[in-house]
Amino acid sequence: MVPVKYTELSDSECAIAQALGVVGEWWTLLIVRDVAGGLHRFDELHAELGLSRRILSERLAALVRHGVLARRLYRERPPRYEYYLTPTGQGLLPVLVSLQDWASRYVLGDGSLTATTRPRSVEAQRVRRLVGTKIPEMTLIDTAGTPRDPVSGQEWTVIYCFPGAYAGPVGYPAGWGTIPGAPGCTLESAAYRDRMSDFTARGARVYGVSTQRPEDQAAFAARQRLPFPLLSDQEFRLAAGLRLPTFRAAGGDWLKRSTLLVRPDREIRGVLYPVPDPVGSVDDALALLDRQRTDAASRRA
């Protein structure tokens, strides 16, 4: 077999080589990562990535040329553009999620399959640093099959991310119960259901998010009589946009359990991660909500 040179990757018959011809330079996927995370302007990307303006210009032009990014004019004089993921670019989000999971498990971790982490792990610190950042503009499919913004119009939105829950035992992958942190999703959702009046009284809307298909979520929600929507992140828009922790099992990528407290302006004001007790996490979310409400009232005073 004749060796393939790097300069010939885009002409290779191998699909992996062709992909590397588009995104093989390591800055490229970081640009895709940051655009997915809500950075759309050149200066924002330049400040975040720290690479030269020339290289960034070249990478952005290449991604537009390959159809990964699209430009949108936001100022005419002088012309300035914002960059957004096209459907082709959104198709790279599972790649980002898989790369993050692989590094978390095999580079930063010990290789063990787990749906949680240690409280002081690098992963836990990274997720808790989401406080103060904003959820990018996006829609997820709810249990009625309707696109829905994961940030509600209420004073507060509580988003609890969970690995997966099914209407019956048949849906769960083999060995699910042996994965640390994976079991308990049904109990967690039922606890939110039973405490819904407490969240409503505090001006909070609750959403549950997993990477399951909307129809699986709908069947589970109907069986448990959940009074709030479940949202499907099966295309990994929220997971990639926030770099939420995931784990790979049974050929699929699943969200690790975490809780986000969000304001209407999309700012994340509180994070619970890791979540060792699915049922107890509901009380923890209420306590976090009370602290933030008290802090908000103090600032207004």
Describe this structure in words.
With 301 residues, the chain is an alpha+beta fold. It folds into two domains: 85 residues, Winged helix-like DNA-binding domain superfamily/Winged helix DNA-binding domain (Arc Repressor Mutant, subunit A); 208 residues, Glutaredoxin (3-Layer(aba) Sandwich), CATH 3.40.30. 40% of the residues lie in helices and 17% in strands. The strands form three sheets. Strands 4-3-7-6-5-10-11 form a seven-stranded mixed beta sheet. The chain has a two-stranded antiparallel ribbon with strand order 1-2. Strands 8-9 form a two-stranded antiparallel sheet. A hairpin with a 4-residue loop joins strand 3 and strand 4. The protein is globular, with a radius of gyration of 21 Å. The N terminus is likely disordered.
Question: In a nutshell, what does this entry contain?
Answer:
This protein has 301 residues and is an alpha+beta fold. It folds into two domains: 85 residues, Winged helix-like DNA-binding domain superfamily/Winged helix DNA-binding domain (Arc Repressor Mutant, subunit A, Orthogonal Bundle); 208 residues, 3-Layer(aba) Sandwich (Glutaredoxin). The chain is 40% helix and 17% strand.
